Amino acid sequence: MSDQSTTTTTSATPQPTTQAPVNFRRGQPEWIKELPQWPSFKPPKPDLTKQLINPAELRQLLKDYPDELTSIEADIQFMNHELLRLFLQRDHEAKYQQNRYRLYQISYLVLAAVAGALGAAQVLALAGNPDSVPIWSAAETIVALLVIFLATISGRAAPLPVWLANRRRAEQLRREYFRFLMHLPPYDEPILYRRQELLSERAADINRGVNPDEREGAI
């Protein structure tokens, strides 16, 4: 399953930074759309217009409840700096590492297929043209060296655990976003500055890989 972070409800809403453009590989089968991109993703831009909630849809939904709308928009404005920027960073890093992981896996498959084909060519060359065997052997040696190189660079910073770690943090930050908006525990504190202070602390914990629920339970 793709690591696409869906932050929209309609096709008219701008796509998040980490997702492919609307017309990316348009008209192609889904499995082709899920293939890794090359060149890979660029560093995310600090674009806080990418929201988890469509502002226009929110205003339309709450047009008859101006007080509630004002309160929610104030919460969103606060979270743009305290939480959303962290979510966008983690979300982008998760997608970037997923793309790396898929690139490595497909590269291994292609190199394995090429190595098999070169091995078969050597066998055929022994029977029909023995003088060409060293050429096929040299080509297979090059493929083997490419596999070693790929295994070395992928082993130094394995993308799979980094992808999963960043995806977990991004989804935890997403959860905190909607908890805060809905005043769900632990954000049911009636005093505003205490709610905001708690969100800042929990978002910082999640961003550095600490589960705030486990930390609070251990205190």
3D structure, described in words:
The chain is mostly helical. The chain has a domain at 67-218. It has helices at residues 30-33, 55-61, 66-128, 133-156, 159-181, 192-207, 212-218.
Distance between the amino and carboxyl termini: 37 Å
H/E series, N to C? HHHHHHH
What is the number of helical segments per DSSP (H or I, 4+ residues)? 7
Mean pLDDT over the full residue set: 83
- Global morphology: elongated
The biggest beta sheet is recorded as: none
Question: Helicity range of the residues?
Answer: 55-70%
Question: Top keywords for this entry?
Answer:
7 helices, 66% helix, 219 residues, 0% strand, elongated, mainly alpha
Brief sketch in words of this structure:
This protein is mostly helical and 219 residues long. Helix content is 66%, strand content 0%. Helix 3 (66-128) runs antiparallel to helix 5 (159-181) and helix 5 runs antiparallel to helix 6.
Summarize the helices and strands and which ones pair or pack.
Elements: H1 30-33, H2 55-61, H3 66-128, H4 133-156, H5 159-181, H6 192-207, H7 212-218
Helix pairs in contact: 3-4, 3-5, 3-6, 5-6
